[in-house]
Amino acid sequence: MPGITRRHFLQGTACLAAGTALGLRPLPAMAAGSMGFNEYRRCDGLELARLVRQGEVSPAELLELAIARTEQVNPHINAVVIRHYETARRLAGEALPDGPFRGVPFLLKDLGVSMADTITTHGSRFFREARVAADDAYVRRARQAGLVIFGKTNSPEFGNSPSTEGTLFGDTRNPWNLEHSAGGSSGGAAAAVAAGILPVAHASDGGGSIRLPASSCGLFGLKPSRDLVPIGNGPGEARGLLSAQHVISRSVRDSAAMLDALAWETPGPGFGAPGQGSYLDQLQQALRRLRIAVMRKPLLEMPVDAVCLAALDQAVQLCSELGHELVEAVPEVDMRAAMQASGTLSVAGLAERVAQRETQLGRKVTADDLEPVNMEMLAWGRQLSAVDYLRAQEGLRQTSRDMTRFMEHFDLVLSPTMTWAPPPLGVVDMDLPLDQFGPVATRSSVFTVLYNITGQPAMSVPLYWSPEGLPVGVMFAGRFGAERTLLQLAGQLEQAQPWFDRLPPV
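Structure tokens predicted for Amidase:
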């Protein structure tokens, strides 16, 4: 295990000792006839909304259950870092939009979103008081779906780590084992969903940040195709076209219905012909036999732990039993060049975001404002030229062309989500120098980042748990715009090997 770092010292006693008995205090008793927590946890978001429409439970009651569960479990997992309880209570008592998730509690990730008159810190001390004036498109669509937003979840600074650890709010702990990472950068969202605070939560993904925490916490996580779902209000938030927004959920149908609610009405070519129906409706359609490429190794020379290969083998067997054709194949992609392009675009986005904040504050950023590794990334980003940026964009396009040729022969690609099970906290540490942090972070994201580079949709599916009880996801990626195929397969896998009732000890 790593020693004490500057970040861990700064956190001081704010971090709980992991591995001790939780001793959760009981939830407060609800009024007679109202929903209890066990019933709440047995429902996904669509089922909770159905109960609201039928008058069996009110939005206010659901919100109080989510708040009570937050206050009960959050001291142990540190998932929710900003609370908007009173605003949510007011909204829950008013007439909510009659959307598919009317009355369902919801959390935003504290990164890359704007909700009116609230702070989004991006996990950074430099943004700790960064208040915004208006909702962005994602938040507006979430509200129109009837969701009741009551807080924000933890994220590493600027989402630049596959583990949710940081100085500002501390580390998020995995509900399956408090000594381990919940993944990143949507680790707070995943931990909150896994721990039963809510059934579905906002997440974003610039290199694997939906799929990695979904894998780490035993949940379903779909990264949509590039530009299908609105993201942010500025170029820095999209990480040079690498990032996408959606949710992490316990059920596949919640993810599908959220995609219906969040996606642009006319996303453009490549997203399917008119008349295909909603993403949720697609789950009811029979799935044809798929030809699936099986990729056992990443496109960079890197070990893959036996537990991840065991998860892959189990998924291969299950897909074969369901009638799909599986073929071992490897795309011809220059992954080193692709990663270099990805890194260039990421640090350029970081430099743009920090520059905007410097203008707002009227001062320059200092080493006391950012995590050490982000200070190095910022210096890199500030040295880039316009030529470097254009070359990086061409690198993305070249990788996309290479994968398009490969996908002409396959419907989907199946691989591990990560090369290892969720690592202990402190292994992926933003106090490390960049030349040490990069290889460790890549151990988590080397499979996932490919599809941020190409813009293809990809999902992590929770089909396997290690002998030690840690979730280990597998990833399926589709052709650009093939969310419907991915969701259909996910629904088929969910029915064949259910995971919804598999709950962590927290």
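Confidence is low (pLDDT under 50) at residues 1-21.
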